[in-house]
Amino acid sequence: MTSSQKTESFFWAKTYVHLAAGLVISSIFLLLVMIFIFAGPALFDQGHRSIFTWQWNPYQGQFGILPMLMGSMILSVSALLLALPLAISLCSLLLTAPRRLSARLIHMVIRFMTAIPTVVYAFAGVLLLTPLVRFSFGGSGLSWLTATFVLVLLILPTMVLVLNSGLKPKLDDLCPQGLAMGLDRLDLLWFFVFPHTKKTFLAAGLLGFGRAVGDTLIPLMLAGNAPQVPMDLGQSLRTLSAHMALVTANEVGGAAYSSLFMAGALLLGISALVSLISRALVTS
Amino acid sequence: MKRPLIFHVFRSSMGLSAALVLGCVGTLFFFLLLKGLPTWGTELFFGDTAPMDAIMGKAPVWEGIWPAFMGTLCLMTVTMGLVLLPGIGCGIFLAEYATPLWKKRVNTAIDLLAGAPSIVMGLFGFTLILFLRRAFFPEANTCLFLAAGCLSLLVTPVLVVNTREALEAVPSSIKLAATSLGLSKNQIIFCLAVPMAVRGIVSGSILAMGRCAEDTAVIMLTGAVANAGLPSSLWAKFEALPFTIYYTMAHYQSQEELNLAFGAALLLLFLATAMVALAKLLEVGHKLFWQGERPSVLQ
């Protein structure tokens, strides 16, 4: 192969790499543009009243999606509130006893959990958890509480991974001197690492929240999908994501579609905000 | 040293939370295994149809998960066909060619995409079809190709980030030595760095395949249906394992139908776990080879 041929072949390789990057970037743009363009008319056409209200009743012309927005928020926040302490204590166990059998078992299980499809979580949740909830709270068993428990399992591995990668370097730095002073690893973690890693906690919480808001199958199959704001943990609720799946599945019709696009735009907006903030936290 | 009460509470909560999570995941796994494993057999896949006829496509399968299984395989193949070249290319661009400013921009965009909920990707496909119907093709409809396109958007970040990290794991000393021997930048990238990173790139691709096998929300909005038979063309509706599980769970009438869902759920769980495990194995091997030390299993 002569030298000019070789340059030629690298020219194509270089072009391919740049084209590929361009393609990926432009498809991300296309995604954002399409979602927001379709959501636009819902904002401007019918005034703000019909979409941003508290009543969802398509057969009487009421297309409010505020209950769904509320449902997404309270479900994700409650899952997060349960998952964060769990994730912190699991991560501490991994960090303070890395060689113990229990920690290795937890390692394996966390890795296994990242691989479980959300539809499988939801499927097992319906069969295992719903009867329990029905037995103790009455009703159908499809409720805020049920969906929260299963969502906790879904977001837990992500949060443990983020916490682990943020806390481990700091603890490792402190270890030789700290252990020599007679403190154990948990002391170091609790008194010296935790007070200085608020950003890591925040990033882990945000990522967990993002996953919880975006998940569709668990709320769809476990939360009962009544378009209302639940008053207690035993009541059913509907999230934005489940709402989207239901509207497309039932093909309610034209006016309902605008609520679908609005729900999509809201979800995309929330998740974009979450990724941008957690990115800023991690890089700063 | 005097430690506050909350410290002791926290110390004992570590074991408790571990037991709780182990208990939940263990129950879930063994429940699926106990209920799902007995259903495995030709009955589960092919129903009453003779297996050979079903595999050759001579006879339709009505009461089995064979069409859904084939649908998932087709979906994975088409998606990987669409996403491999752009995803890997974008990863190489990020690791080797991008200026710091572009690196920041592209990484932010990839982060946005990685954080976007999968149902939004499905909605994107849905809006595309509505747009095509209004503008060009009145008969456009959701189909296998559309679902694969949206799924490829979903798994792009996985592929890009893994390719980038695999390339960054190649030691800079090798690049330095190659430069001092007079190799050009392009030669170093395409003749040294990329071949050395191949194992990491393959691991990322397997991870991406796993993601596209398990995702349900995207295909729900872009053409998965309960009864379509074997996938007939790129422009037809199709069946897929995750959608079958969801649909059966929502509509089952008898224990037999529920058993079908159990079998499908266990199959999907095995498929997803096997892919993640394989990807992890390759990645650990890649890092072990180039960085000399065993990386933390969790990172």
From TrEMBL, chain A:
UniProt GO cellular component terms: plasma membrane
Keywords: Cell membrane, Membrane, Phosphate transport, Transmembrane, Transmembrane helix, Transport
Membrane topology: Multi-pass membrane protein
Localisation: Cell membrane
Main location group: membrane
Xref: SUPFAM superfamilies: MetI-like
Membrane listed as a keyword: yes
GO BP terms in the entry: phosphate ion transport; transmembrane transport
Gene3D superfamilies: MetI-like (1.10.3720.10)
Record-annotated membrane-spanning stretches: 21-44, 64-97, 109-130, 142-163, 260-282
Keyword Metal-binding set for record: no
Annotated ranges, domain ABC transmembrane type-1: 69-278
Family in the record: Belongs to the binding-protein-dependent transport system permease family. CysTW subfamily.
The protein, known as: ABC transporter permease subunit
Native organism: Desulfobulbus oligotrophicus
From TrEMBL, chain B:
Gene Ontology CC, one term: plasma membrane
Residues passing through the membrane, by range: 65-98, 110-132, 144-167, 188-210, 216-238, 258-279
Stored PROSITE patterns: ABC_TM1, PROKAR_LIPOPROTEIN
Listed InterPro entries: MetI-like, MetI-like_sf
GO biological process, one term: transmembrane transport
ABC transmembrane type-1 domain mapped to chain residues: 69-279
Taxonomic superkingdom: Bacteria
Keywords: Membrane, Transmembrane, Transmembrane helix, Transport
Membrane topology per record: Multi-pass membrane protein
Protein localization: Cell membrane
Family assignment from sequence similarity: Belongs to the binding-protein-dependent transport system permease family.
Protein's recorded name: ABC transporter permease subunit
